[in-house]
Amino acid sequence: MSGGSTATRGTPGWLVAAVAGLFGLFYAFAVWNGVGQLITQVSFFSEAGLSLSATGWAVWLLTIMLPIAVFAAGVAIGRSRGIGRLALLLFAGLAVVAVFWLDVIAYATANQSAFVAV
User: Fold this and answer.
1) Domain residue spans of the chain
2) Which one of 56, 82, 84, 88 is most buried, counting C-beta atoms within 10 A?
3) In the 8-state DSSP scheme, what is residue 82?
4) Rounded Cα distance, 115 and 117, in Å
5) b/e code 29-46 from CB counts within 10 Å (16+ = b)
6) Residue 81 has what DSSP assignment?
7) Which of 23, 20, 4 has its CA nearest to residue 97?
8) Per residue of the chain (118 residues), what is the pLDDT tens digit?
9) What's the whole-model pTM score?
């Protein structure tokens, strides 16, 4: 051997896309639940002659936007770090989204009057 350095190969793009796509389904489920909860809350309060307050709109819109932002950040940060780190990063982001969902559901259950516009 002539002492030349070996070229390091990155993770194949199709593998990164497959892992991101698989985790993307779980993130899409979280977004879909956010849309469903927002529609449910708006229709529930409108049937009672009420509407969502600014706090209610902000909280339910965050349940839609947060999973999208966390997924985009996870893919942007993890795509060049190897497939294992990408999967771990996306899984950790999914855990953050799940904890946020539990917080929102707990807050909505305990403080439903904060979601009603007077």
Assistant:
1) 20-117
2) 56
3) -
4) 7
5) ebbeebeebbeebeeebe
6) S
7) 23
8) 555 555 456 778 899 999 999 999 999 999 999 999 999 999 988 998 889 899 989 999 999 999 999 999 999 999 888 899 999 999 999 999 999 999 999 998 898 888 888 7
9) 0.84
